[in-house]
Amino acid sequence: MERYEARLEAVRAAFARKVATLAPDRGFLVRFSGYGVGMTEPVERWIRRAGERCIALGLPDLGAALIAHARHEAGHDRMMVADLQILGGDPSLAAPPWPSGVAAYRRMHEAIIDGPAPWGQIAVEYEIEALSAAYGPRLLAQAPVPLSFVAEHVAIDEAHTEFNRKHLTALLKDHPGFLDSLADCGIRALETYGLFLDDCVGRASRHRVAGAAVTAG
Hints:
Blueprint: H1 2-20, H2 26-40, H3 43-56, H4 60-70, H5 76-86, H6 100-114, H7 120-142, H8 148-174, H9 179-216
Helix pairs in contact: 1-9, 2-5, 2-6, 2-9, 3-4, 3-6, 6-9, 7-8, 7-9
């Protein structure tokens, strides 16, 4: 596990630098909530399918843990929809076509689940759920309105991160040869989630520029 953590150190630091530059104003949060539907709606299915493939490949303990964990992720996209409504955002943001970062995040999950190392899903969960505990409180403090999705995940994802760490540690202990595939999945998860944040920042910025141009005209 120490070797895994060392492999993730640089990409976590790069992600932290990206987050430090964010200004979570209403425009950003509207897109975070709208595009976030595309990031969260399939999560239950992704985790369950990964668990089923792990069982099929002879990893029953991890598979059962993932399937059990999947149930906790059901319906979280509805929180994103509710937050989008509270923020007064355009409902069409919560539907396809998705921005490139969201599409890449969805492809990443499908590739891991259907690929040769579906156990990589536990590394994805470990990295992504840890983000809520690390960055969620700041986002809540700066948001202009209460955000149900972020508040819920700040409350629960510290425990989820411990769950993920426990199973990731056990997997690496039993299968040290999985280190490369697990580290690769963790790195891809953070890098691809960063593309989602880029979508939110970039499109919010373009919307502000377009709005200013209309007003000036």
